[in-house]
Specification:
about 120 residues, about 45% strand, globular, Nuclear Transport Factor 2, Chain: A
Length: about 120
Amino acid sequence: MSAAEVTQWLERYVAAWKSGDRDEIGELFAEDVRYRYHPPDEPLVGRDAVVESWLAEPDAPGSFDASYSCYAADGDAAVAVGTSTYLDSDGSIVRVYDNVFLLRFDQDGRCSEFTEWYLKRP
């Protein structure tokens, strides 16, 4: 995947997170994806497991925003960086996380491996 293709995937990732749409989320991931919220976690395995996890405790609409970009891409592997920002009901910032995603993609441009690293800003 090119850096531009990874960036497009990241834009779809944010849109799916915001929409909470089952199909939109599922389209991001390979059928046999291995997804980790934290590097040492046992991965969630399979698209359905990831979709169910995302929808189990969704963030309220308008309570967050996010922006990620491709830092590096090489073949089917990529690294993305960005921020996730959580907002109060009046729109004020509650907390911000700096994120790094380690990604691997299949031949159809779906994510087949996802590992997130994040750090809450002081």
